[in-house]
Amino acid sequence: MAVRNCLVANDWICWEYVRSRSQELTDATVQHVSITAVSVLIGLLIALPLALLARARRGFAGPVLGLTTMLYTIPSLAMFSLLLPLFGLSAALVVTGLVLYSLTILVRNILAGLAAVPPDAREAARGMGYGPVRLLWEVELPLALPALMAGVRIATVSTIALTTVGAIVGRGGLGNLIADALPSLFKAQVLTASVLCVLLAVLADLLLLGLQRLLTPWTRIPARTLKAV
Amino acid sequence: MGAVADAWTWLTTRSNWSGESGAWHRLAEHLYVSGVAFGLACLIALPVALWLGHLGRGGALAVNLSNTGRAIPTFAVLALLMLTPLRTHGDVPTVIALVLFAVPPLLTNAYTGMREVDRAVLEAARGMGMSGRQLFVRVELPLAYPLIMTGVRSAAVQVIATATLAAMTGGGGLGRIITAGFNTYDTAQVVAGALLVAVLALLVEVVLVAADRLLSPLRKTT
């Protein structure tokens, strides 16, 4: 009976809640992760050409940066509501809103990363007969990867936090659990969902950091080895 | 485009602006809560950041705090505060959540601004016999000013934007127009509310950019 008491007493921490609603919690987490992953991936697919365009033509840089920054000032609740007439109450609505937010961070970071590529490396590659496409894929993007990944990490973490607001249209992953628990003041559900949300953000950040280290092995060469050469 | 036309009709209907749940009242609530939260955040973050920056310590903490801050969903913080005894005090949970949200960008930018002041300039000022206090007021602060203001601007806009979420946990502000529209399936009202909030956020950004442009040359000549 002692176990049932924490649900009845409406405690903040209640393992009985986690155990009995594990399916509900899993479903919400899966929805949260998939909405975040799809949003960041689409964001990246849009941000990369936008950044390349802004870099290639100076005339595009101002409007691209200005527009994406302006999008960032639109409140999340307002963003999801403004897209309502276009998408209705769907996951596409939440994903679109989140993609628009991620663009600000991603475009800026990709541009900064590309700008930081040493001109010598670019010249050397050109001298070796690299064309513009091969130069981009084999020299510039790998060298810009640390800055790009820093952008992806920030975008992912803030997207995980923003996904909760999708609860307004019923597609907020863990945010749905928080919104559902509010009217009945169900403390265990609000706390569990909130903690899961933060854990998810921390975990995603660590995974992306690991991925970055895997993708950029050259940054891990110890300083001593470099000096010896 | 029908939705936008309907939203326009909502916005131009006088009765939607008056009364306790009217747009003017919601706008006043929004500005009041945002203003208090932003003011408190500045009072907490700026002295700490400027002091740490002057001493040159605690930088890793300030930057890490900012990154961790992004991981915390404001909606979750608001919901958690709602369930504490604070909820009886109306706007208190909203203000606390917004302060938590605004402190990291203020802290990081002000600290970074102070640390990026050229070492050689500081050495020269010290060589001229400036005291630590004079150094702080006449050299570090004016040079760090642009970055401090960047943090202040982004924090202000983020607070205005995020105050909207208070409505999801029963607080006041412009977000209430949106959530009320959702509850009654009134798309026109939802879009009208969203437009109001978006315009307010952009307006605050424009006003702050203009204020910054007017103020910064004065700072440079002193």
From TrEMBL, chain A:
Q: What InterPro entries is this protein classified in? A: ABC_transp_perm/SBD, MetI-like, MetI-like_sf
Keyword tRNA-binding present in the record's keywords: the answer is: no
Pfam families the record matches: BPD_transp_1
Query: Membrane spanning segments where?
Result: 33-53, 60-80, 86-107, 143-170, 190-211
Where does the ABC transmembrane type-1 domain start and stop, copy by copy? 29-208
| Membrane topology classification | Multi-pass membrane protein
By its UniProt entry, which CDD domains does this protein fall under? TM_PBP2 (cd06261)
Predominant cellular place of this UniProt entry's protein? membrane
Q: Does the keyword Phosphoprotein apply?
A: no
| PANTHER family xrefs | GLYCINE BETAINE UPTAKE SYSTEM PERMEASE PROTEIN YEHY (PTHR30177:SF30), GLYCINE BETAINE/L-PROLINE TRANSPORT SYSTEM PERMEASE PROTEIN PROW (PTHR30177)
| Family as reported in the entry's similarity comment | Belongs to the binding-protein-dependent transport system permease family.
Q: What is this protein called?
A: ABC transmembrane type-1 domain-containing protein
**What is this organism's lineage?**
Bacteria, Bacillati, Actinomycetota, Actinomycetes, Kitasatosporales
UniProtKB/TrEMBL annotation, chain B:
Q: Which UniProt keywords apply?
A: Membrane, Transmembrane, Transmembrane helix, Transport
State where it is primarily located: membrane
Q: Which residues form a coiled coil?
A: none
Membrane spanning residue stretches: 31-53, 65-86, 92-111, 155-178, 190-211
ABC transmembrane type-1 domain: from which residue to which, for each copy? Answer: 27-208
**Entry-linked CDD domains:** TM_PBP2
Q: Where in the cell is it found?
A: Cell membrane; Membrane
- Quote the PROSITE patterns the UniProt record gives: ABC_TM1
Under the heading Pfam families, the entry gives: BPD_transp_1 (PF00528)
Is Transmembrane helix among this UniProt entry's keywords?
Answer: yes
Keyword check for Heme:
no
Q: How does it sit in the membrane?
A: Multi-pass membrane protein
Per the similarity annotation, which family is this?
Belongs to the binding-protein-dependent transport system permease family.
What is the protein name for this chain?
A: ABC transporter permease
